[in-house]
Each structure stands twice: as C-alpha cells, then as structure tokens.
Design goal:
single chain
Length: 161
C-alpha cells in the first residue's frame, strides 16, 4: 500500500513518513504514533502521547462505578425505605445495583488488560493484528521485540559442570 524504508512507512493519506508501530486512523484522519486503538467513548485515538491518561481514565471510571454500586447496596438496606413507603424504589435500586456491578467487572477487566499491555509494551492493535506485523515472532517461543518489562519469562539455563 505504501513505501517502506528502514522501518518507516510512507502514509499516502497524510503524506508523511511514519515510524514503526504507527498507524493512520481513518476516523481521526491522522497518523498516530504507537497506535493502540480508536476509542469511541472518547472519540479519539489512543497512542503514545495519551495512553497513560487513558488507563488513568479507566481506573477512575472503575472506581466511580464501584462507589455507585456500594451506594446502591447501602441504600437497598436502608430501613427508611420501608418506613416511608418507598419499597417500590428498592426494586429499581436492585436493578441499578446489578447493572453497576456488571459495568464495574467489565471496566476492571479493561484496567487489567491496560496494565498488562503497558507492562509488556504492547498495543491493542498489535495484539489483535499480530499476524500483519513481521516484527513479531509467531513461532515458539513468542517474541516481542518491544518488551522492556521487568517481568520476563526466560528459558531455563543450563548450569556449567
């Protein structure tokens, strides 16, 4: 599709040379360095410059949902609801509680994945489309050339006799 030179690819839409791990986003109509994904909730691309803010947003969103679920749980057990004849609202609180718990679990999964990808120095785009990128070794053992983490799964070494 485009020209390639020393790992840099030419973007025919933006008319610029973009580095390895960069991608042109059709929705934003721009090239993004270390492209992770296009977030429909933020209507913005997530990449090198804003990934830490995106993960922070996910953590705060998860905490917000958790606080909402705790408030619903506490409100369901409040005796004032029965005393004031608001027992019908209790059913709505139960539905809201279940909804918030489900969203908290989903949001927590995204937070965990965000941290795992950050530790492994991977992007969601690379995980989903790894077969398109020749810099990943798909043979055993799997090799990620960008892994700078402190957590390494190394092959056992033989001791000298």
């Amino acid at each position: 599709m485009g020209f390639e030179q020393n790992g840099w690819k030419f973007c025919e839409t933006c008319h610029i040379w973009r580095p390895l791990r960069s991608k042109h986003c059709d929705l934003c109509n721009r090239c993004v360095v270390k492209f992770d994904h296009h977030c429909p909730f933020l209507n913005n691309c997530i990449g090198k410059k804003n990934y830490k803010y995106f993960v922070s947003y996910l953590v705060l969103q998860t905490l917000d949902l958790l606080i909402g679920a705790i408030c619903c749980y506490r409100a369901m057990g409040a005796e004032e609801l029965v005393l004031y004849g608001l027992a019908k609202r209790n059913n709505l609180l139960r539905i809201l509680f279940v909804y918030l718990v489900i969203l908290t679990i989903i949001s927590s999964a995204f937070v965990v994945l965000g941290f795992i990808y950050a530790i492994r120095n991977l992007t969601l785009n690379e995980v989903l489309n790894h077969e398109k990128y020749d810099y990943f070794s798909l043979k055993e053992p799997y090799r990620n050339p960008f892994d700078l983490s402190l957590i390494h799964i190394s092959e056992p070494t033989r001791q000298a006799e």
